[in-house]
């Protein structure tokens, strides 16, 4: 090695050592001034790096289904940013942005795993089955049969049926997902499904009108008839118990009860003969 080369190598080594020493000094200085947990400086640093959280969320959201709530991911990312600020060591030599992006991304992925109750292995099997089914459908122009799926997956039909049952949880439709629509106000599948427990509007209107008619007719009944109906239908007393309460015979109470019902029934039939067809007393 020539003398000139030796001098250049020595100068390069000295420059590298000097730069490294300078970086260590700056890192130590940053470590002393790094914001403490719960201080105003920490809050200011969080505000300054909110754009980084939005950037990571936007990038991850590109490959997520529409029903995943972006606000939930943003909240998880904020937690990752705060943990990054509190866990960052300026003396480690890495930039804060690089470290923070890793922590933010990790926090968001953890939130996605928490939201998904189906094991990862099931998702892997489901993707394989769906890919094969899509390929067969493209070739045949129709949905694949179980026999075709089993043959394509190189497994017996019984084994394929067990596999299809195993991956069923991974193919559940999320009712909060938006329906395919070109408008911004698309309904979710949940909002578009009929509630079988809900009362039909026509039946509800008929029932309320019928109830109003019965109530008005009850007020017109003699007092004794109203009392018998109240004790029988609301207090759930037997006719014998009502007779004992009034000091009358059971046959007489039965007669009063029948007269009250016939009066109400006659009123309803006068209003509309169809009223009494689906109902009986």
Could you provide a short overview of the structure?
The protein has helices at residues 3-33, 40-48, 50-61, 70-87, 96-115, 120-140, 146-152, 157-166, 189-192, 201-220, 223-234, 239-246, 250-271. It is an all-alpha fold and 281 residues long.
Whole-number count of domains: 3
Mean pLDDT: 78
N→C terminal distance:
117 Å
Secondary structural class: mainly alpha
The overall strand count is 0
Order of helices and strands: HHHHHHHHHHHHH
What count of helical segments does DSSP give? 13
- Note the main sheet: none
User: What's the helical proportion of residues?
Assistant: 55-70%
Molecular shape = elongated
CATH fold field value of the largest domain: Rna Polymerase Sigma Factor, Chain: A
State Rg. 39 Å
CATH architecture of the largest domain: Orthogonal Bundle
- The amount of beta strand, in percent, is under 5%
Q: Spell out the CATH superfamily of the largest domain.
A: RNA polymerase sigma factor, region 2, helix turn helix motif
Poorly predicted parts: none
CATH level 1 class label of the largest domain: Mainly Alpha
């Amino acid at each position: 090695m020539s003398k000139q080369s030796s001098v250049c190598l020595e100068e390069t080594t000295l420059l590298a050592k000097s730069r490294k020493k300078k970086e260590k000094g700056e890192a130590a200085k940053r470590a002393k001034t790094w914001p403490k947990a719960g201080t105003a400086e920490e809050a200011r640093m969080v505000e300054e790096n909110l754009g980084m959280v939005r950037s990571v969320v936007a990038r991850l959201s590109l490959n997520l289904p529409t029903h995943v709530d972006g606000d939930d991911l943003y909240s998880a990312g904020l937690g990752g940013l705060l943990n990054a600020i509190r866990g960052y060591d300026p003396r480690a030599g890495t930039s804060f942005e690089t470290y923070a992006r890793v922590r933010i991304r990790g926090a968001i992925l953890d939130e996605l795993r928490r939201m998904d109750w189906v094991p990862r292995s099931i998702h892997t099997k489901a993707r394989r089955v769906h890919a094969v089914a899509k390929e067969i459908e493209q070739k045949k122009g129709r949905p694949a049969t179980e026999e075709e799926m089993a043959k394509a997956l190189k497994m017996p039909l019984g084994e394929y049926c067990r596999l299809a049952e195993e991956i069923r949880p991974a193919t559940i439709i999320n009712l909060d997902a938006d329906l395919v629509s070109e408008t911004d106000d698309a309904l979710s599948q949940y909002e578009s499904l009929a509630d079988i427990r809900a009362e039909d509007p026509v039946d509800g209107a008929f029932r309320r009108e019928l109830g109003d008619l019965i109530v008005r007719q009850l007020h017109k009944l003699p007092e004794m008839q109203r009392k018998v109906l109240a004790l029988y239908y609301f207090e759930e007393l037997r006719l014998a118990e009502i007779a004992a309460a009034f000091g009358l015979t059971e046959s007489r109470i039965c007669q009063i009860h029948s007269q009250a019902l016939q009066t109400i029934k006659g009123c309803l039939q006068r209003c509309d003969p169809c009223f009494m067809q689906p109902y009986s007393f």
